[in-house]
Amino acid sequence: MPVPAKRRPSSEIRRRRSHHALKKINLVSCPKCKTMIKPHTVCKNCGYYKGVEIIKIKSALDKKKSKKKEA
Questions:
Q1: How does pLDDT run across 7-63, given as a tens digit for each residue?
Q2: What's the longest Cα–Cα distance across the chain?
Q3: Backbone torsions φ then ψ of 26, nearest 5 degrees
């Protein structure tokens, strides 16, 4: 059975919780568009990873043109 909470010293509780702190996210700049992204991931802004286009992302101008064609 576990020990009641009040029977534990506060220092013991704090020592255990010392590893629960959030860590800073490491960000790098995309070599193509210079936006900040997580390392080893595809850029959400331009769709490139290691100099190769992985995802085709429509730009704002392309979206406007396609809307005009539909109307």
A1: 889 999 999 999 999 999 999 999 999 999 999 999 999 999 998 999 888 776 676
A2: 72
A3: -85, 120
- The beta strands (E) that lie in 1-71 are given as 28-29, 36-37, 48-49, 52-53
Domain boundaries, the chain: 23-70
Residues in the chain: 71
> What tokens were used for 42?
């595809």
CA–CA separation, 12 and 38 (whole Å):
35
- Report the chain's C-alpha Rg in angstroms: 24
Tokens of 58: 């429509």
Specify the DSSP class assigned to residue 25: P
Interatomic CA distance for residues 25 and 33, integer angstroms: 20
Decide: pTM greater than 0.90.
no
Residue type, 2: P
